[in-house]
Prior knowledge:
The complex is a heterodimer of chains A (576) and B (715).
Chain A: E1 21-32, E2 35-44, E3 47-52, H1 55-61, E4 63-66, E5 70-76, E6 89-94, E7 99-103, H2 111-122, H3 132-139, H4 153-160, E8 167-170, E9 186-189, H5 190-195, H6 197-205, E10 214-218, E11 225-229, H7 242-253, E12 261-265, H8 269-277, E13 289-293, H9 299-313, H10 322-329, H11 331-350, E14 355-359, H12 366-378, H13 385-398, H14 403-408, H15 422-437, H16 445-457, H17 468-474, H18 477-480, H19 484-490, E15 507-509, H20 522-525, H21 538-542, H22 552-575
Parallel strand pairs in A: 11-14, 12-13, 12-14
Antiparallel strand pairs in A: 1-2, 1-7, 2-3, 3-4, 5-6, 6-7, 8-9, 10-11
Helix pairs in contact in A: 6-7, 9-10, 11-12, 11-15, 12-13, 12-15
Chain B: H1 7-13, H2 22-27, E1 32-33, E2 46-57, E3 63-70, E4 73-78, E5 83-84, E6 98-100, E7 104-111, E8 121-123, E9 134-141, E10 146-150, H3 157-169, H4 195-205, E11 213-217, H5 218-221, E12 233-237, H6 242-251, E13 259-263, E14 269-274, H7 282-296, E15 304-307, H8 312-327, H9 332-339, H10 342-349, H11 351-371, E16 376-380, H12 386-398, H13 405-418, H14 423-428, H15 437-451, H16 460-471, H17 500-503, H18 509-525, H19 549-552, H20 565-582, H21 631-634, E17 650-651, E18 679-680, E19 711-713
Parallel strand pairs in B: 14-16, 15-16, 17-18
Antiparallel strand pairs in B: 1-5, 2-3, 2-10, 3-4, 4-6, 7-8, 7-9, 9-10, 11-12, 13-14
Helix pairs in contact in B: 8-10, 11-12, 11-15, 12-13, 12-15, 15-16
Amino acid sequence: MSRSSSPGMKEFIWQLPGEELVVTDRSIVYISPIGKIPGKVIITRYRLRFEAKDSQSRGNCNFDIPLGFIYKVEKIGHSTVTRGESNYGLIVHCKDVQYIRFAANQATHSRRPLVEALLKYAFPLSSKLPFYAVLYAKECQRPTINGWTIYEPKKEFARQGVPNELWQYTDINTTYNFADTYPRVLMVPKAAALRSNLHLRLVGEHRSRQRIPVLSWIHPHTQATITRSSQPMAGIMTKKSNDDEMYLRDIVDANANAHQLLIFDARPMMNAKVNRAKGGGFEENYDQCALQFLNIHNIHVVRESLRKLREAIYPRVDEKNYWRMVDESKWLNHIQSIMEGASQIAHDVEQKKCSVLVHCSDGWDRTAQLTSLAMLQLDPYYRTIEGFAVLIEKEWCSFGHKFSQRIGHGEDKPGDSERSPVFLQFIDCVWQIMKLYGHYFEFTSTLLIEILDELYACRFGTFLYNSEKQRIVEHRCHETTISLWSYILENRTKYLNPLYRSQEASVVILMTPSIRHLHVWNEYYGRHNPSVLAPGSEIAKRYSIERAIGKKALLNELMAIEQNAAKNRQPVNTTV
Amino acid sequence: MSQFVSFVDYESGFQSASQPNSQSTANGKKLSILQYNTPFFKGEIECLSCSDCYFAFQFATPLCGRVVCTNARLRFISNVPQTRRLPRRSRFYEESCEFPLCSIHSIHVALVKDASRNVHYSQLTENISSLDVVSHIKIILKDFRVISIDLRRSQNGTALANQLLFFAKHPQVGPFPLTSTANQQPKEIVKFFTKTAWMTELHRCCSVGEGNWRIVDLHKEIIEDLSENYPPFVVAPSSFSMTDIDRLARNAKLGRFPIWVWSYSSGSALMISSKLEEHVGTPMLMSRIFDGVAQSHSKDERPEMIHLDDDFQAQVTKGYEALKRLCAIDSHSQYAVRERHWLSRVWKTGWTQLVTNCMQKTAEALNFIVDRNRSVILTENESRDAALVIGSLVQICADAHYRTVNGLYELIDKMWLSLGHPFGIRLYGNDATICPTWLLFLDCLAQLIRIYPTQFAYSSHLLLGLFDASISGASRCFFSAFSPSVPFDSPFPLDQFFYAEFTMLFTNMYHQAAKTVQNMAMIRRGSSSFLMQEVIRTPICTMDIELWEECYMRWTPPASVNNAGLPRESSVLDSLMCNIAESRRGITWQTQLPAPERLSSLFPYCEPDGLQRIMYSKIEDEDGSDDTVSVASMASKRGSFPNDNDSNRVRLSPSDSSASFRAQRAVPLPPLTNMSTSASLPTPNHINPSSRPRAHRQAPLPPPRRSPDSTIIRF
Lengths: 576, 715
């Protein structure tokens, strides 16, 4: 029943490098939303693959789920007690909306090896195994483009025009000794850097986890900046720190166009106040600073919201109550509050030429969302494929968004309260902007879905672990794994948007996210739903209307034409 | 009765008053002055005029001027000339300052009664006594525009209200100039009143088994004039004898016996029928129908009968009313309040549910016709509403011909105009009976265009054009309650109602591009890339249905954004195709759309206004239950209209300085605004000031900016 192949041998066409077969079960029934489909399940080191027995439904019903998607494996029924053939089996819950239910053969105990293999390889951390990303990188040829070098902090800052006479690097964190969740390379006001590292350390003491305000983005013309940090450690006594205030004043002074620093606290005011009890707080009565709360809810609220949204959509859409359920999930409201905050920041930086400081509690969830979305609106570079990769590497990976905890990579802890779809929320926001302003983006939503899929799949090292220190220093991911961006840049043409006009796209998007402009991202959330019309959905395949739905097929054709034209043009250029 | 002027005559009659240069308006650079000299129709007379009143469309700044009411339209003439940013659409009405009276949905008036300054609106259903003094009139149009007229300085308010009521509610009493009976020979008539049209259609649809159907001349075959709802010629199974038809017509409601409307290429037919009266003979008649239709099927398959909901009309009426309450808004505070629980509010209208239901029924019918090769008979109580919606959708989905502009015109001609949809009752009835099935059909079609953008040769602008033409009373076709004995002039093509600036938006750029790409692929690879499909499927899941904001929200400036959405994307695609065509031979592409620097997402209906940066997520509901918003509560409590002592001040800030309107600054007023006009926007009473943290900075007012939604070229 189970067999393993020798490594390096490729038995199936779909097999990836380093993807060993683990278990095959030939007598399993997949209980799909449209009926029972008998077939076989193959579990490899990377994926769970189902192949239907019936050759007719094969094309439509085969599916692959990377093991990294698995959130929970649930056994249903008991081998001796349960009656009825479909009541005995297992349910595989996934981190995106779907879950898969199988009915196994009760008599042969065939469920046991399946479940064991799933638990072992879907949760490699719990079973002390390496991530598949490591095996993949070992067997895989080195990619031609090294995605690990796509984001070089110094190159990126140089693009923005810093260091200059007002901003400069500090070496305080080169060994991650100062703030271990921060990147090595930090950009601080020159005035502060000149004061000595002790000053920075004192500022660090007043900020949660030493996440001091550092530069994220600087406006090329006005020198208005976006800086990010964690909350100040004001505490219940609303402690003050002269160094912190001095430091913020340095940020104000670094921008000649405004005399005020706008501080955006992403949290609702209540939460910020409650945080005081835990030693945190917010900037009160700072000179030359104005504080505003953005009313964005925390990871727990967001997680709950996605759960409710999922209930409305999967396994089947509640025809009667769908709209109400989506509304009550408040998913779109959360999206809206983030986008409003980001638009506000973009607006203040672009139009009022003010510098802004963004923080929440720790400055790695909501802060990352806000700064990256604001930067996406402000800087056309981030709307190219490379730029988007840089944006994510910079604002998310290097500034310590805790991917490992928020996604729960490789851990069998489904109830972990640290998990939350913060990054998904960010990608959803990007999609919402793209839906309105699609022609300002070099890529299409295909890239967004690809990123989300690879986020869970653990084939690449980009989203493993919690911080730059863990990723690069402790686990040396840049050597042991391949970066997602290598893969994406090698397959670049797949994601290109033919409607992108690079010369026209150099604009700032300033939007007002009214709820009327926000939609549920059907293409992503609804893709596993059998009755939702989307390219690739079950119903589209059944009626073979995939290419008629939406404009994706047309855009792909147009892209192919453009690529061809570019190819043909090249020889002409050389002769001229 | 001799006053009728055909549109062509009308058009040639006023060459001098042709449209102002629209090229410059499209660019938004040079603004042209609004013209008030659109000529009246023949027979249109001025009935009443009120000077010194303040007039405003939804969200606009009230302007001082003169209101003129004729028997067909209401026109506002501002004291100072106004400029136009958006191209003019209608040939008959200057949309930014006048509207046809027949498109009025309801009128609400505020009377001067007590000493309180509160403006309290109540709906006008009967004439008011001339002793009452009307101070404000609010008019809601069928396309959800809202017009407010402040008549406090005018004497004629009461007369105006009565006048409006008379002409809006009794369009059949005084014949509208445009709808009076024609004396001259009409140029082109509704096609499917003729035998040839049905024959052509039969021939086109039935590649096999054309002989299974025959054309029935109702005047000859039915002794009494039973089927007055049907055109003179219809198509029935050829096995139906004259007696069969007579008997069926006598037993079917309104005499609408089962008739053929369309056949799929496999030979399965689509038929519509009203319900048969229940009596002893009904089963026999039913079996006669089934046998006859089966004999007409290429494989003698028994037809499938799909019964449609009897409750349909009531639901449409209810849904439309709720939709109106949701979307007919005229102030930012109303817009902001609806921001909360928007999806629930949409859901509560029931309109999206209706759309979903229609889509599901269509999918069911398609399943029988396309996948199972069975004929389908759609039966409805009177087969004048739901059957037409679903019948039309089935044809659009299964026959690519109807996804072309002319095909759609033909379909509407066949299914709606000829088969007797009672437009007169459904669109021009009083507001208890108004039941825009027609709008529901257009909505369903718009959903399909949204989902299958490459499959339709027309864009949803064509649908909006159709709806606007139908409610403006411009064509008699959309005005009649029953099929008349004399055929109407055809309303198609729509160019007779609209200027080219609007009709050129009817082209669906995605379709054009897809067709070009497919041709190119055929040249290159010798095979087609199959971007085009013959049969498309309707969405069956409510998740795929969206509110048709392009229609219901199109007059709402805050719902629009600059340089975004479909209009901009289409124009980008347009220029891309131009580039592609330039670089290769054999491909032609002409730039079809204007590409101004700023293009509103709701072009050409409205543009985003200045007052925009509102933190919607912070706005609290004052009353959680404003789903029962009446017009009375729609108007904000005070200050909705210019205050007399407020003049010479242009102010847009909410009265409560700490309210959540963050960036408070004046709307960029048109350059030539009358400075004596005061403009205070409605106070956002709905906004709870306490919802905003005190810690908010007291930043100086932001510098003037074009519009927060605009995009700024920097590099």
